[in-house]
Amino acid sequence: MPELPEVEVVRRGLQSHVIGRRIDAVTVLHPRPVRSHPIGADAFSADLAGRTIDDVRRKGKYLWLVLGSDAMIVHLGMSGQLRIGGPDDVLLRNTRVLFDLDGGRQLRFVDQRMFGGLEIVLGGAGDPVPHIALDPFDPRFDQSAVARRMRARHTTVKRAILDQRLISGVGNIYADEALWRARIHFEQPTADLGPRRAVQLIRSAHEVMAEALEQGGTSFDSLYVDIDGESGYFARSLNVYG
């Protein structure tokens, strides 16, 4: 599943292609990715047509397009991809939704396993996913405060760092790598972590994700690629995962 670095790579790639563009038309090729829309696929398409994309933002593993005061959330799930192309380009086999943009470009949502999804959130431009915590790349993220909350949990350290209500954006890849860097056993109880060790773990998670971001994220197969179909190379630098 794409984690914070992979989603951030996609967000950065989209910026130069979609910001300021108008969505002229939306074609839903399979209804499952828009299953959260209360009325259905046709209404999803109609609600987006004519809207302008003002920004592309991310929190944890969630990405969203800012549409005025509203948002369209993109959750990549296990195998979701956002690809940029032209309307005459050959469709990839698992293309599920097409967004025709003014200027002749097309944004495509591709998802083999279809655990991902798209959702319109009215009034959600600022934060359409308030149920998850801040991620370590957010300037408001307070490592010491999160470390205190982690140590107060009655669980193990890996379960804690994977809890999106405590720290968003971390999945199994970067949890394992952060634990290895911090030299902390994944089954150690959080209550047994000292304050410095807890902060060290959070810093390690931030560091390893920052390094992964510089290398385009982690790709084990073709299910995670950037908007141009290119794989990330951080798998070569993993110490324990895989």
From TrEMBL:
According to its UniProt entry, the protein's GO biological process terms are: base-excision repair
Q: Which PANTHER family match?
A: FORMAMIDOPYRIMIDINE-DNA GLYCOSYLASE
Molecular function as annotated in GO: 8-oxo-7,8-dihydroguanine DNA N-glycosylase activity; class I DNA-(apurinic or apyrimidinic site) endonuclease activity; damaged DNA binding; zinc ion binding
Q: Which chemical reaction does it catalyze?
A: 2'-deoxyribonucleotide-(2'-deoxyribose 5'-phosphate)-2'-deoxyribonucleotide-DNA = a 3'-end 2'-deoxyribonucleotide-(2,3-dehydro-2,3-deoxyribose 5'-phosphate)-DNA + a 5'-end 5'-phospho-2'-deoxyribonucleoside-DNA + H(+); Hydrolysis of DNA containing ring-opened 7-methylguanine residues, releasing 2,6-diamino-4-hydroxy-5-(N-methyl)formamidopyrimidine
What is the protein name given in its UniProt record?
DNA-(Apurinic or apyrimidinic site) lyase
Q: Which family is this sequence assigned to?
A: Belongs to the FPG family.
Sorted alphabetically, which Gene3D superfamilies does this protein's record hold? 1.10.8.50, MutM-like, N-terminal
Using the record's annotation, list all stretches that form the Formamidopyrimidine-DNA glycosylase catalytic domain.
2-116
Q: Assembly and interactions?
A: Monomer.
List UniProt keywords, sorted A-Z.
DNA damage, DNA repair, DNA-binding, Glycosidase, Hydrolase, Lyase, Multifunctional enzyme
InterPro entries per record: FPG_cat (IPR012319), FPG_Glyclase (IPR020629), FPG_N (IPR035937), H2TH_FPG (IPR015886), Ribosomal_uS13-like_H2TH (IPR010979)
Does the keyword Calcium belong to this entry? no
